[in-house]
Write a structure and sequence with these properties.
The chain has seven helices and seven strands. By secondary structure, it is an alpha/beta fold. It has a single domain (6-186), classed as 3-Layer(aba) Sandwich (Rossmann fold). The longest helix is centred in the first third of the chain and has 13 residues, at 6-18.
Length: 196
């Protein structure tokens, strides 16, 4: 399966930053200024804060395929992600309820996150079939293997796309073996499924 490589996400981040001379976290923080608590999102991006440069690239790719993406430390910069608190958990619950799906970005740093497993479990509890894993691998043909519970959710793969742009989605879905773009699944267009 062709998974998105970490280098591809970083390249997308460099492209996003090439228009301005700012760091990934500066660009992401500027995005937060237009945030409204009444906003609805296609994707809650569950990730490790240690992957800020990669997250900018992923957010850019998802934005380019038409998705509105919530990133907690960008859209709610006052959250203290370093500690597990009741207030932070409550705010994350509220935000997850405004999102159509959760994408769990699996990198080597994901295993260090205290929040990612909680976010995945909470979201799956109230919106089963709307949780997907985005494995970021180091090499094009790398296999993906995460913690056992990660295998419960469908992985997002790279899809063939036109004009050289990145497209993400799911392949071999259903009996027809069709591909389903992430933009269609995450926007609530009636494509919901779980792993086989």
């Amino acid at each position: 399966m062709p998974y998105l490589r970490i280098a591809e996400a970083r390249a997308a981040s460099r492209v996003a930053r090439s228009y301005v001379t700012k760091s990934a976290s500066q660009i992401l923080m500027e995005d937060s200024r237009s945030f409204s608590s009444a906003d609805r999102y296609d994707v809650f991006l569950s990730h490790s804060f240690q992957d800020a440069d990669v997250i900018l690239g992923i957010k850019s790719i998802m934005k380019n395929i038409g998705l509105k993406v919530y990133v907690d430390w960008i859209d709610d910069p006052g959250l203290d992600r370093g500690k597990v608190t009741v207030a932070t958990a409550q705010k994350l619950r509220e935000r997850m309820k405004t999102c159509s799906s959760l994408v769990y970005v699996h990198t080597p740093n994901a295993t260090q996150s205290v929040w990612m497993p909680w976010e995945l479990g909470y979201f799956d509890g109230f919106k089963p079939g709307h949780v997907w894993i985005l494995p970021l691998v180091s090499e094009y043909d790398s296999e993906f293997k995460g913690q056992e519970y990660i295998g419960l959710y469908p992985p997002i793969e790279k899809l063939d796309s036109l004009a050289g742009s990145q497209n993400l989605g799911f392949t071999d879905v259903g009996e027809a073996g069709r591909s389903v773009p992430l933009a269609k699944a995450a926007s609530g267009s009636g494509v919901y499924f779980t792993s086989k």
